[in-house]
């Protein structure tokens, strides 16, 4: 499973990248707004900076919701860097735009996915990645991981090549379960990635080893 970080924060991207296990970055309008990035030029420059920091795919989301503006924005975003993947919402115009991008060799990430039916449409349109929002499904009282399992089964049976990108990750356990469910990619906040490191027995064991190491010193 590939590891992406789900943020537009450069310090967090650098920290995750420094671990050596980062395969890419995903952003969305809310994450860009959180960093105070405003205006087209600033947004484009921010994506360029991220692409220069990380050797992997960087999802950049369109703001438009009609076919023509999704296409125009997507073309501009894709021109920033070869690693840019155009993130398109799962709406009627979005599906049509994904098909257009596919035919024009522009890679896409279909976002705001909450059902298997939406996953089938995105795959038919040729989406490179599909982003089901696990945390938001859990928040609404459903089981996000069951959706990943269902999409995995459908994609395997049908031979769809679209990669399942588990998004809206809220905890280290979400990452583990996404891996078990067969997600191709998991996009995570930095805290959830670092949370995978933690185990009290590791800390206790290391403290003991360090204490005993002192006894072996001359
Ligand atoms: O990138 C989209 C997704 O990961 C959003 O996560 O936590 O806002 O539901 P969240």
Structure description:
With 218 residues, the protein is an alpha/beta fold. Helix content is 53%, strand content 17%. The chain has helices at residues 10-18, 29-34, 40-53, 67-78, 92-103, 116-125, 134-139, 144-158, 172-180, 190-195, 200-215, and strands at 2-6, 24-26, 57-61, 84-89, 108-113, 129-132, 163-166, 185-188. Helix 5 links the parallel strand 4 (84-89) and strand 5. Helix 6 (116-125) crosses helix 8 (144-158). The site of SN-glycerol-3-phosphate has 9 residues, from helix 7.
Identify the overall geometry: globular
Helix content: 40-55%
Structural class category: alpha/beta
The unreliable regions are: none
State the end-to-end CA separation: 45 Å
Strand order of the largest sheet: 1-2-3-4-5-6-7-8
The set of bound ligands, ions and cofactors reads: SN-glycerol-3-phosphate
Count of separate DSSP helical elements:
11
Tell me the strand percentage band.
15-25%
Record field, number of beta strands: 8
Summarize model confidence as the mean pLDDT.
Answer: 97
Order of helices and strands: EHEHHEHEHEHEHHEHEHH
Report Rg.
19 Å
How many strands, what sense, and barrel or not for the largest sheet?
8 strands, parallel, barrel
Concise account of the structure shown:
The chain is 53% helix and 17% strand. It has 218 residues and is an alpha/beta fold.
């Amino acid at each position: 499973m590939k590891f992406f970080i789900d943020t537009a924060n450069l310090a967090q991207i650098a920290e995750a990248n420094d671990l050596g296990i980062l395969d890419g970055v995903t952003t969305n309008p809310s994450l860009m707004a959180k960093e105070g990035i405003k205006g087209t030029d600033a947004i484009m420059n921010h994506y360029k900076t991220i692409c220069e920091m990380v050797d992997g795919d960087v999802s950049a989301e369109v703001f438009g919701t009609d076919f023509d503006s999704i296409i125009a924005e997507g073309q501009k975003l894709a021109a920033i860097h070869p690693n840019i993947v155009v993130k398109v919402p799962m709406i009627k115009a979005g599906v049509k735009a994904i098909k257009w991008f596919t035919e024009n060799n522009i890679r896409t990430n279909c976002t705001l996915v909450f059902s298997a039916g939406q996953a089938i449409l995105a795959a038919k349109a040729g989406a490179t990645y599909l982003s089901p929002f696990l945390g938001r499904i859990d928040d609404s009282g459903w089981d996000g991981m069951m959706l990943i399992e269902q999409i995995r089964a459908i994609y395997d049976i049908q031979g769809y090549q679209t990669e399942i990108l588990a998004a809206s990750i809220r905890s280290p356990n979400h990452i583990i379960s996404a891996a078990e469910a067969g997600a191709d990619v998991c996009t995570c906040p930095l805290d959830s990635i670092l949370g995978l490191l933690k185990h009290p027995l590791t800390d206790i064991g290391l403290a003991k080893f360090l204490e005993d190491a002192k006894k072996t010193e001359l």
